[in-house]
Design a protein that fits this description.
The chain has about 475 residues and is an all-alpha fold. The chain has two domains: about 240 residues, Up-down Bundle (Substrate Binding Domain Of Dnak, Chain:A, Domain 2); about 120 residues. About 80% of the residues lie in helices and about 0% in strands. The chain has 13 helices and three strands; from the N terminus they run βαααααααααααβααβ. The chain has a three-stranded antiparallel sheet. α1 runs antiparallel to α2, α1 packs parallel to α12 and α11 packs antiparallel against α12. It starts with a strand and ends in a 41-residue tail after the last strand. The C terminus is likely disordered.
Length: about 475
């Protein structure tokens, strides 16, 4: 078993690790893109040199002007993109560091809260043990047990009587003549009718022996009603006896110092809520940065950069420059030999660097997708109420293995959610169970959803909920 807070910490540490890897990939992508742009600029410079060497003044000015314009546009777009990515990377780095510190603080707060809860429950157990030898509490417990036994017996008797009533009244309800006279209140002070109607009603009553059937039917309905009222009175008496017993127990708890421990649990919960809110705020900021960075890494969403780089590539790949390059290769002279060699060297390096940049971009996008899977599981963790201070998971190693598999792409958030759901349980409450002392006074629910409170039972401790 591992505490629920440890499982959550494992998920969030994996998310932070993924973000750090994304930042590393982003830096690699920026570097590769800058290298490719630099090589494009070198290509453009080489072609400008060839144009100056091989073409007449008019053609030379046209080629040089076209290359200069395309290169300026591409370099400006890259500069803007680099500036934006650098700013994002800096902000992300700061937020990731802040997130790591906030999660560490939240984990420490969760641990303190768990210990504070255990301290309250342990004290309740000790008080329970002490009262087990207290004559006053034993007498009060006897009165509660007797009152509850009487209430339970009366409730059972009332339920049986109601079932018998429903069965035995069928012949009466299915007789239309009896139902007619009963509905009119025949034979009672409520009955009112014209003389002719009275005459025929009397004949019908004699025909079905209504005067005998009516009191039987009345008692058939009245007895269950009285029994239920009696059962309700006994249940109220049992509730009052329980309240007296709980007041006795609460007084004993307070005498043993439970109030200070409950106050410490309240303070620990408030500290945990504050730490959790800090983490949640940073999560929201990181999510916004993640979306911006994803858009920058997605070439289809950065139209200005794509247009500028493609414009430079198109300018270099024009037919007249291709012909100029072929001519220089065919008639190498000392003047153009160095230029041709430069162009030959640049081409494979450029293709390789652009391919590397695309691979890094795909890896960054894929890692962001895997991180998003873990974030879905983290959000499901909170929605499902696994943050209960007494929450625990059966197999921490399995959870860690699935987290690793999600990062490797072999599993998804669904696999992790299923494992969390199957392995989750809540640590048993104090030995007494249900409502000892009226229930231990834990603080209200934290900012994120937690486990719903278990139903209150009769007798024992009531410490399972309201965290």
């Amino acid at each position: 078993m591992i505490p629920a807070s440890k499982a959550l910490s494992s998920i969030e540490q994996a998310i932070l690790g993924a973000r750090r890897d994304e930042d590393r990939l982003t830096k690699m992508l920026t570097s590769a893109t800058e290298d490719a742009a630099r090589m494009r600029a070198q290509q453009a410079e080489a072609f400008r040199a060839l144009a100056r060497l091989k073409l007449d003044a008019l053609a030379r000015d046209e080629v040089v002007g076209r290359l200069d314009s395309a290169e300026r546009n591409a370099l400006e777009a890259l500069r803007k993109r680099k500036t934006t990515l650098d700013a994002l990377a800096s902000d992300r780095s700061d937020l990731v560091a802040a997130m790591a510190a906030a999660e560490k603080a939240r984990d420490a707060a969760a641990e303190r809260l768990g210990k504070a809860v255990e301290a309250v429950e342990d004290q309740a157990d000790r008080t329970k043990d002490r009262l087990a030898h207290d004559d006053g509490w034993l007498e009060q417990s006897r009165l509660v047990s007797e009152a509850e036994a009487k209430a339970a017996a009366a409730a059972e008797k009332a339920s049986q009587s109601e079932a018998d009533r429903d069965e035995k009244r069928k012949p009466y309800d299915e007789d239309p003549l009896f139902s007619y006279l009963w509905s009119r209140g025949y034979g009672t002070s409520d009955y009112s009718a014209w003389a002719i109607v009275r005459f025929f009603d009397a004949k019908v009553a004699r025909l079905i022996d209504y005067d005998t059937a009516r009191p039987n039917y009345y008692m058939l309905n009245e007895i269950p009603k009285r029994l239920r009222e009696h059962a309700n009175r006994l249940e109220q008496a049992a509730a009052e006896a329980r309240a007296q017993g709980e007041a006795f127990e609460r007084k004993a708890l307070e005498a043993d110092g439970i109030v200070a421990l409950e106050a410490a649990a309240t303070a620990a919960t408030e500290a945990h809520e504050k730490a959790d809110a800090a983490v949640e705020e940073l999560e929201a900021k990181l999510t916004a940065l993640d979306e911006r960075q994803t858009d920058l890494l997605d070439g289809s969403k950065d139209a200005s950069l794509n247009s500028a780089v493609e414009g430079l590539a198109t300018a270099i790949a024009r037919e007249d420059l291709a012909s100029l390059y072929k001519q220089a290769m065919a008639t190498e002279t000392p003047e153009d030999e160095k230029i041709v060699r430069t162009l030959r060297d640049i081409e494979p390096k450029l293709a390789r660097r652009e391919a590397e940049a695309e691979e890094v971009r795909k890896a960054a996008v894929d890692l962001a997708r895997k991180r998003a899977e873990l974030e879905q599981s983290r959000d499901n963790f909170h929605r499902s109420g696994y943050g209960n201070p007494r929450g625990q998971f059966a197999d921490g190693a399995l959870i860690g293995s699935i987290i690793t598999s999600v990062l490797q792409g072999a599993m998804t958030s669904k696999n992790l959610n299923d494992a969390l759901g199957k392995g989750f349980s809540v640590r048993k409450p104090p030995r007494g169970g249900g409502s000892f002392g009226g229930g231990l006074r834990f603080p209200s629910s934290p900012s994120r959803p937690s486990m719903p409170s278990p139903p209150r039972s009769r007798g024992g401790f009531r410490t399972g909920g309201r965290f």
